[in-house]
Every structure is written in C-alpha cells, then in structure tokens.
Amino acid sequence: MPSPTWDSLWVNVNLASMAPGAGPYGAITGAALAVAGDRIAWLGRMADLPGAPATLARVVHDGAGRWMTPGLIDCHTHLVFGGDRAREFELRLGGASYEEVARAGGGIVSTVRATREASEDELLATARARLAGFLREGVTTIEVKSGYGLATEAELKMLRVARRLGDIRPVAVATSFLGAHALPPEFAGRQGAYVDLVCDEMLPAVAASGLADAVDAFCETIAFTPEETTRIFTVATRLGLRVKLHADQLADLGGAALAAGFGALSADHLEYTSAASVRAMAGPGTVAVLLPGANYFLRERQMPPVAAFREAGVPIAIASNCNPGSAPVLSLLLMLSMAATLFRLTPEEALAGVTREAARALGLADRGILAPGMRADLALWDIEEPAELAYWIGRNPCRAVVSGGVLRETPA
Ligand code: NIG
Questions:
Q1: Which protein residue's CA is at the shortest distance from atom 11 of ligand 1?
Q2: CA-to-CA distance for 348 and 172, rounded, in angstroms?
C-alpha cells in the first residue's frame, strides 16, 4: 500500500472557504480538507477524494458535519499594555467624554505610565492572559501595536513582547510600531520635537531592529495632525515599512485619504470618513478596518460609511481593537455580532472581515481563505450555518483550531 501523502485529512466538514467569487461564504458542503506541512494541500467534495481517507493521510479527523473556516485574523489590537482604565470608564459614565479625559492627562497617557513601569515579563504575562480568549475563539493571526511606550526603548520593549507572544503561543503575530499614538507628558507643548524624535530616532531604531511589520499613527484632533502624519509616513516609507492609520475616528481630518496616498495597508476606525476619502481608498486597495467595539464602548453615534465602502469596492475588515481605553474587548466573535447589528454588515461580510479582508489589511497574502497552497490556519465550529458566528452573543462554538498545520487545541 502506498504511504499517505498528506499529514492530516479532515473529512465530513462543511467548508466556508471565503474564496471570492465562489458563492455565499465560498461554501463547499460534504467536503474534506488535507494538510501537508503548514499548508492546505487539497480541498473539495468528499466524493472527489482521490482514495480512501486512511490511505491518503497519516491522521484522519472526522469533522462530524461541522463548519470549517479559515483561522480568524484580528488585524487591529493594542494587546500589550500595563494597567487598565476602569476608573476612567467610571468617569466617562459620569459624563466626561473620551476627548475630555485625554485632554485632562488621562486616557492613553495614563496607560503609558503603567506600561513604562512594567517589566517586559510583566507585560508578556498580562498580554498572554488576554490572548488566551482570542485563541479559544479560533484566532490564528493577531496584529499587536506598540504605542504605550512613547520613548524609543519603551516602544522597542512593547514590540519585543509582541514578538515573544508569537514565540510562546501558537499564533502568528504581526506587529505595528505606533510611536505617534499620543504626546508623552515630557514633551508637553513640544509636539514638533516629539515628531522629530519619532522620525529621527524611533523609526530608524525600529526598522533596524526588525521588530515591526508596519508603521501606524493616530491622526486626530487629540493626537497628530495630517502634516505630522505625512512626515512620519514619509520616513517609514523610505525605510521600507508599510503604513496604516488610525483615521477619522472623532473628526474628519482627511486621514483615510492621506493613508491611501501612501498606499496604506489599511485605514482604521473611519466613523467620520468623507465620500472623497472613500473614493481615495478604492484605488490602492486600502482596507477599511472597522472597530465596532470602540464605537460601542465610547457610545459613538456616528457610524462608518459602510454603504459607500461597498459601492466603491473598498474591502472591509473587522477587528477587536483590544485596548484599555476605547475597547476593552477580548472577543473577536462579539465583534462579528456588533459589526452586523451596529454597522449593518451582513454576517458573510463580517466573517470575511475577520478572515480574507483582515489578511489583506495585514498584507498577508498566504491566509484568510481556504485554498490549496494557503497556510493551514483553520477553525472548526459547532454550528449549523456560518451566519451563527455573527448571531450568537457570548457563545463560543469553536471546537478545534489548526495553526500553521498544527492542531493546537480542542476547546470544550
Ligand atoms: O484604536 N484611537 C487610538 N488608539 C486606541 C485607543 C487607545 C486608548 O485609548 O488607550 C484605539 O481606539
């Protein structure tokens, strides 16, 4: 008998491949999927398998009619931080706005204090604990930003923690340097000097370290101006780093169009993005990353222009934005529900937003859909139909996760 070609084979699964142009969810029912090494080797209908399962693979898993999707991708998080901001939450519930808290020296700057004080190992331990919930929900790739260090060594410390998370846990970590997240207190009244530091010292150090996969910035009335953002992106681009931007969250500063002008991977938030900016994003394929958790938690009434993104063909991704200030969110599945109810995405768009389009927002062309040659990042769900992933609130139907070809856990 010939030796099996594949390392593992999943039989009796329904695949939501999320392949574009392959019908709703790219679904293939009554299907099988084969893994060789860290790649998907084959997928199709059971009837088209080229032999009996046991002869084809060393290990055969029976999916028992469950749905399999690409492993989920959370493309915008601030997972690494010190402390929390529960007290600020109470202040906001008492009437203070996010901007007022920030201008009074709270907000991001208070997390900067706690993050600077924490050791690398302490940050790793708290981030690892937060990561656990995402892994249980089928997340196989997660983006992690710096941005609470705001000094060269403290920013590098955050990025090292993010990379270490990917070493110690079975998840791929994409990192973004976010030195232009807020003005650190020691630069009060000297914003230009801080931007000089970001451009002249931090960006070259970050690029040389290899610790960042992209450069992010917060272009906002309470953060950095479009001109400052342009300076930072010009240096980042010269250093060979792709860019992405926190844009138009609290006001329309033309941030999304600015990002698109740099061929940004994504522009994120986008509640106040104008029609002109939407059009600007379409050309370079800049992904609109929507963050319903922040919209909910800050009680924002302005909704991102979803219909305009659809009409212009701008890809839409969804992310948790896990952070202590605007989105203490530890569930990506909950974001599917919120994207559907708050932003009126269809459940299929929401699932594409945490698979195919989230991969695009990270510039990762080898994941986010189920197809031969793609990374074998898979999630198996105890659901009758894919829409349930956006439907249930507080239920985790994930039953198995394969990360880079390795079956990593089978949550109860
Ligand atoms: O994406 N908007 C800026 N950054 C975060 C908030 C960070 C914080 O408040 O600590 C966000 O919402």
A1: 326
A2: 24
